[in-house]
């Protein structure tokens, strides 16, 4: 017997024909939805926070360096990508997941965002521009999540991250023998 056979059905809602299904009521759907708890998200108004995050990610997607990360990698163009990368992710998927309330916990969103850089590092040359851009985008998106209760000035934060990334990169080159 399946779990669906174990559900008690209201006799007044029984279909005329036994082969027909019974529509699920709105309150039945609501009762089975996951309900967030305080430790899942740092703030109580999840819909407002989601709006801030989606707006921030949208502004990130407008940056020129975000272009290779906007949509899933084209497997026809990079056939090895599917064999090398076990968890493909992109900005439009992350944004859609926020819009559709996919993320039950903040840590799940952070996981996806970190994979932008992880995948770029795994598939590309270590010091390539795409890896650098992925790291900057990842940090930018993670900061948007950390500051999700307020507006984030994405262009300003982006320029600060690029400057600090460039200076730390030049320091590493100076230290190399």
From TrEMBL:
SMART domains: BROMO. Keywords: Bromodomain. GO terms for biological process: cytoskeleton organization; regulation of cell shape; regulation of transcription by RNA polymerase II. One of its GO terms (cellular component) is nucleus. The keyword Transcription regulation does not apply. Transmembrane segments: none annotated. SUPFAM superfamilies: Bromodomain. It comes from the Eukaryota. Residues 61-131 form the Bromo domain. PANTHER family: BRWD3, WD REPEAT DOMAIN 9. This is Bromodomain and WD repeat-containing protein 3-like. The lineage of its organism: Eukaryota, Metazoa, Ecdysozoa, Arthropoda, Hexapoda.
